[in-house]
Amino acid sequence: MKMRFISLLMLVCVSVSPLFADSALLAANPAAESVLSAYSTREFSEEPLKAGQLDLILQAGANAPSAQNRQPWTFIVVENSEIRSRLFKSLPEACAVVVVSVPVEDYCGGGNSQFAAGTAAESMYLMAQGLGLGAHMYTFPAKIINETPEIKTGLKIGDDSEAAVVLAFGNTDEADTVSGASGRNNIDDFVVIID
Ligand SMILES: Cc1cc2nc3c(=O)[nH]c(=O)nc-3n(C[C@H](O)[C@H](O)[C@H](O)COP(=O)(O)O)c2cc1C
Q1: CB of 75 closer than 6 A to ligand 1?
Q2: Which of 12, 112, 178, 179 could pair with 67 as two cysteines, CB 3.0-4.6 Å apart?
């Protein structure tokens, strides 16, 4: 993890604009490692989460920002193996699975509920990575939930709500073929400065 962060730091320093290239700023920021090195774990191991880790992840989601601080989400921890097998082809039992559901009807303009599901999901994702765990967020199983009434009912999601995103958390398997984030576009290519 440490080596990966140092390489990442070097990569960031040489490849991004001078505004973001301050390695001292990065090193002094305790969140930097998990934010900049986060990636989607492809293979989880059978090693269970440690006590308290899932609670911290859920707390991170609860602390996420939402429009008018409405916190429109519900976090559903899915332990039921039958439902899990309908959402994922293969996912170790040791993984925690969390569905973020939000009301279908929006508030205060469009998109706020879905947007809040995103902020909560990202906060949980980053907390998991900061704890040294692997994490992955998926919308495909959310679609399965919303299109399958018995799964939706089984997860206690009412007609007024829908699954927005599903997250898996766990320890990364040694056989995981991916050990870092895929390439990202350079910020110079999409940051627009209006002066
Ligand atoms: C909104 C959203 C939906 C996603 N849905 C899926 C999904 O349904 N299945 C999947 O395997 N990965 C899904 N992902 C993971 C992305 O494929 C992954 O974040 C992206 O490829 C970058 O991977 P990396 O961070 O490991 O480089 C989703 C990610 C986001 C943010």
Answers
A1: no
A2: 112
